[in-house]
Design a protein that fits this description.
Blueprint lengths: L1 E10 L2 E6 L6 E6 L5 H8 L3 E12 L2 E14 L5 H8 L12 H4 L7 H4 L1 E6 L4 E7 L4 E8 L2 E12 L2 E6 L9 E7 L3 H22 L24 H29 L12 H24 L20 H8 L7 E6 L11 E6 L4 E5 L5 E3 L7 E8 L5 E10 L2 E7 L1 H4 L6 E7 L2 E4 L5 E5 L1
Parallel strand pairs: 3-5, 12-18
Antiparallel strand pairs: 1-2, 1-4, 2-3, 4-5, 6-7, 6-21, 7-8, 8-9, 9-10, 10-19, 11-18, 12-15, 13-14, 13-16, 16-17, 19-20, 20-21
């Protein structure tokens, strides 16, 4: 399983993920056996951004992800610029069309010298955008909305009562990908390998044991009304004792339900459903948090509450735990792809690693731009990087045969970032700049 970050939508009854990384691919989503993440989203149906944990397959010419869970799920968010601009545009947005130009430009047509400065988007919740108009006619523009981060550079000029931004195309003279260097295996790379390995093991466990609740579950904190008197120490201690008992009961309940669901014995028809077990585990997490909060409020030591004992299929084996947590260095071959100018990693990028004996291994870069070959393989001699959009490319890079070490590959991030716009027109209204028909405004800061 791997991580696929993108925007969720429902199209013709199918749940679709449009990825927000370099490839910008589309995937049909299906739940893993016993899973509920896609089914729950189908009931909601709103556009949302999410980090999808799933395994990839192909059906004809379609990309398919079998989904274990959604991480960082944000309803109503998107990582695509068109959705961000739609969010800026209310149905009843006032238009400046027809307003006299002299009223919009403080008594006359604005000149570039008057407009030079640093502008910030104002009046739009959860959206950040900046615009820098330089005296030499160049501009820098950036927007952040949900999982979307976009930027553009280029030239600007004034046409009557509008500031016109013309985005520059990235230079195609630079190679899209280039070999930078080969480095020895180091502690940072080993730590990345262990994190990557552990996340794969955990995703496999979640796929075969569909009992785990969504992450980041938090309990409702203990609160009192502002005008209520503070409880006595005795009451606080009684609350702490009650919360501790409730946490122990919740843990026992979760253990029993998980054991019944995952039992290898013949079905009795009385086994709990996976959602029931997930709810029991979620209740345990809430109860533990409340017990800890109650103990702190009473001035008592924080209670030690062990995690529920789960069936073997739902836990990491001792061998896997030892391997993913080891501190010893285990050299292998790692590929790291990143933009040298910004140090931004290339995530979810398909890579095929070629070995001296003619074999090859298909890999995908992770969150930090790393991809790892299985240890013990013969020497690696080259790699092929595949991109689809905005540039469709298969580029092969050859390097000196390597059995242990890190191959560092640079990529030109600007070429692979789809331009958010070719031309953007901003209407001048006093000292502010408006996108026609949109709410919010760009205001210049001193």
């Amino acid at each position: 399983m791997d991580s696929f970050i993108g925007t969720l939508s429902i199209e013709r009854g199918e749940v679709i993920l449009t990825r927000c990384d370099l490839a910008a691919s589309r995937y049909l989503l299906r739940d893993v056996s016993g899973g509920q993440a896609v089914a729950r989203y189908r009931k909601d149906g709103r556009r949302a951004s999410a980090d999808v944990m799933g395994s990839y397959s192909e059906e004809g010419d379609r990309n398919v992800l079998t989904v274990a869970e959604f991480l960082d799920y944000q309803p109503g968010k998107s990582c695509h610029l068109s959705d961000a601009l739609d969010a800026l545009t209310p149905a009843d947005a006032p238009s400046t069309q027809g307003t006299p130009a002299d009223a919009r430009a403080n008594g006359g047509h604005a000149t570039p010298a008057v407009l030079v400065g640093h502008y910030y988007l104002m009046g739009v919740m959860e959206t950040g955008s900046e615009l820098l108009l330089r005296p030499d006619g160049q501009f820098d523009w950036a927007l952040s909305y949900g999982a979307l981060d976009q930027e553009a550079q280029g030239m600007w000029h004034v046409e009557r009562d509008e500031v016109v931004l013309v985005a520059s195309a990235p230079s195609a003279q630079k190679p899209l990908f280039s070999y930078l260097s080969t480095a020895p295996w180091d502690e940072e790379t080993e730590n990345e390998r262990r994190r990557y390995q552990r996340s794969e093991i955990e995703a496999t466990i979640r796929a075969r044991c569909p009992i785990f609740p969504e992450p980041f579950v938090s309990a409702t904190p203990l609160t009192t009304a502002d005008n209520a008197p503070a409880p006595s120490t005795t009451i606080l201690q009684q609350r702490a004792a009650t919360a501790l008992r409730a946490a122990n009961v919740a843990r026992t309940n979760a253990e029993l339900l998980a054991a019944r669901l995952m039992s290898d014995g013949p079905s009795t028809g009385a086994e709990p459903a996976a959602p029931q077990v997930r709810q029991a585990l979620s209740d345990w997490q809430d109860a533990r948090a409340l017990a800890i909060e109650a103990a702190r409020a009473a001035g008592l030591p924080e209670p030690t509450l062990a995690d529920p004992t789960l069936p073997a299929a739902c836990t990491m084996s001792p061998a896997d735990a030892a391997e993913s947590g080891t501190v010893r260095t285990s050299p292998g071959v790692a590929i790291r792809i990143f933009d040298p100018a910004s140090d931004q990693p290339a995530r979810n990028l398909p890579v095929t690693l070629h070995f001296a004996n003619g074999t090859k291994e298909k890999l995908v870069t992770g969150r930090s731009g790393f991809a790892f070959a299985p240890r013990g393989a013969t020497k690696a001699v080259s790699l092929t990087i595949h991109t689809e959009a905005p540039i469709a490319s298969d580029m092969t890079i050859t390097f000196a045969p390597l059995q242990h070490g890190i191959v560092r590959i640079g990529f030109d991030r600007q070429q692979l970032m789809a331009r958010p716009f070719d031309t953007l027109r901003l209407r001048i209204a006093g000292t502010a700049l408006f996108i026609e028909g949109a709410k919010g405004r760009y205001e210049r800061q001193p």
